[in-house]
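Continuing the series of single-chain predictions for the mutant panel. This is the parent chain; the variants come on the following pages.
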Amino acid sequence: MTHHTTKITAPSSLIKVLIADDSWVFRGILRDIFKKIQHIQVMEDAANGIETLEQIIKLKPDVLILDMEMPIMDGITTLQHLMIHTPTPTIIFSSLSQNGTARSFDALKYGAVDFVAKSSFFKGSDMAADNDLIIKKVIQASTVSVKPIDPMQPAVGKCENQDAQHLVFCEECGTRNVVDMETYLSHGSVQCCHCGDDLKLDTYERSRRLSYVVVMGAGEGGYGNLLQIIPSLGSEMGVAVIVVIHDEPENVSSFVDYLASISAMTVVRGQDGLTLEGGSCYIFSGAERVTLSPYSGHYTIRATKDPTAMKQAALNTILTSIAPLLKERVAGILLSGSENDGVKGMEAIRKHHGTVIALELRRCLCKDMSKRLMRKYPGALIVNEQEIVELIKTMGRQNKKQVVTA
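Parent structure:
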């Protein structure tokens, strides 16, 4: 995520921090930064993953700063063990990976609340700004409630999709065929086992039809929220998901590639001219201006690159565009983010009888976006990521037989 200059607000209580890094130099740098802050206490440190897990149990820190490259047990493996047994708000530091890479998204998927490339600090001349940013990140992390994550348990949506089998009778010869949905999705077609004629799965074609639309807005910290939501959604729903992420386009594109590889839904980088379909997720950068346009019985995405949109409320634009078109068939959801975006668009959703949802603050790394919505609309639904997944599934089931046409 793009770093924002934010005033540091002193925490209401002492934050206990454990630093796990095999470099005594880096541990010393962080200790020097935090010892100037009376609200942050650095506890005993650790030099490898095994020591880290032992210290977590012994000291019960509020925040863990965890190096990704460590001997004996690396950071990702340590994080996986940690989130199963003793979930702790964790900031991953790495000297080899940058933000917006598969390794950084892996860290967020396995439960880290933030990822920081070491090279983004300590290489510039403005050390004071670097120090303030680290302090801010620790304070933000201390306010996040983390939950157990089992890395061996696959996403719910992925399981539903892979296990789905459909009974299809060939129109040409009448032969009974049992078709695996995963095979059908990966190849785009399946042939009759007797005559070789192409089979058409009506149930799959129906799932492409649009019955409901969900628009999500995310900023700093939002990648982690999305990694807990999108992979748990199946492609069999008639729900289309549109996501606007306030980050640079290249980072968003990298995230789309990563998310598509672990999701059952069709996850694509949003672009101009795409037709909105059920079972698909379209992801845009906040540097793009996105609207929805009725065309030939369908809804077409209109998107243009606009670097000023990041400051001029890209999320408000798509929400105000889609609200009068889909009315009660649309839900708006605000996730973690510091951007002043989305509230005006949610007003349009509410006016047209759509559903207004905010991610609960204890699950937001940056709480500003959701907090503004809650302040403006006290009646907004306030839920966690798993509840968002269940709500989307429920919306899909309730509207599955009703197809939205332009």
